[in-house]
Amino acid sequence: MPLPRVSVEDGGLPLPEMKPGPLVLEHRVLKALLGAWALAACSAEETAAVEEHLGGCGPCADEALRLREAVGLLHAEESLDLDPALRTRVLEGCLDRRAPRIPVPEWAVPYDAETARLDALLQDIGEADWHAPVLLRWFRGEGPVDRRTTVAGVIAHLLTVDALVALALGLDDPLEVTADRPTPEARTEAYWRASRFPPSRGVRGPWREQSHGLVRMVSFTGGAGELPVSYGDFELPLRDALLDRAFETWIHAEDIAEAVDYPYPPPAPRHLHRMIDLGARMLPTALAGRRRAGLAAPPRQARHLVPAGSPGRSLCLEIEGLGGGEWFIPLDSPAAVGSAELTVAHVALDGVEFCRLAAGHVSPEEAAVGQDGDREAIRDVLFAAASLSRM
Fold first, then answer.
1. Domains within the chain, CATH numbers bracketed
2. Nearest residue to 59 via CA among 26, 38, 40, 34
3. pLDDT tens across 258-279, in order?
4. Over the stretch 37-67, which tens digit does the pLDDT of each residue have?
5. Which end of the chain is more exposed for a tag (fewer CB within 10 A), N or C?
6. CB 199 within 8 A of CB 150
7. Which residues, 6 or more positions from 133, have their beta carbon under 8 angstroms from its beta carbon?
């Protein structure tokens, strides 16, 4: 019998050099690696084996192409966040094809749109964002006023003030403790005081349900647009009250968006135009109130500068940009009708800037882009616009 062979190690001879060869894998293993290959997660040897296999296997090559295209979709350059205006566009597209059995009155559409936009913002924010600090700002007398609260506190404020419209329509009041005066500020303070704990994200549900209830109710009672809604110190017809609530919803949504760093565009131009029109129609009454308080110059008739019974002077308010238009504001009597023939002053403002002035977010001194004519009249009207604001 031959003797056993001496191993290389035992003979003291060097080991032969091992040259790496291509990785050989079965078809099923290579097919299972296609997903990792498409994500560039394979080792160099696996990548080489897969790519060599793809050159001779048609089904795997097709699958690899589909997987690579799918991976490309995972790296979109644009944000995947939904456009805040998407809901409005989808609803408009649906309604163009099939009218609702109970349509929302045209004068209630801005409120429906603005509450939907704010609800979409609230859907996106996190738990901690509900306690982010928010500064509510408005104008009183001759200067700005502010009140600190949170995102949840702002929604509680909207809930209690929107309830003034709900009460006029016979709906429930979320305020358990009755305020001394049913003004927006008094109701809000009463709600905050009555809460055992600071408002949290739980307030979104009641606010959302109430806003939906208001839209449903006015849709069923579409002819009730002149129903009076009391704000404590004054009244507005229902159609104007809901427009006022749409305006406040937008302004406070901007407050929230600023607090949580969320992009928030202005309302649709046709809705913005309606809000500006409401502010322009309220200016003569606001100007008369400031005169009674000694905060504005008396009308010219009172100073015997205009004959009794004349239409009085007007200020031309020109709104540029979104929702733009031209309004003639009577200066001498809230019951008068503005006239182009008796215009003594002209003020030009951007539409969004005018709304922020009316919300107390811009000072009267900084608001007007263009001014021409009677400086006293211009100052009084700009301050009257700022005095439209409230908590």
1. 27-73 (no CATH), 104-260 (1.20.120.450), 269-386 (3.30.1050)
2. 34
3. 999 999 999 999 999 999 999 9
4. 888 888 888 888 888 888 888 888 888 888 8
5. N
6. yes
7. 148, 149, 150, 259
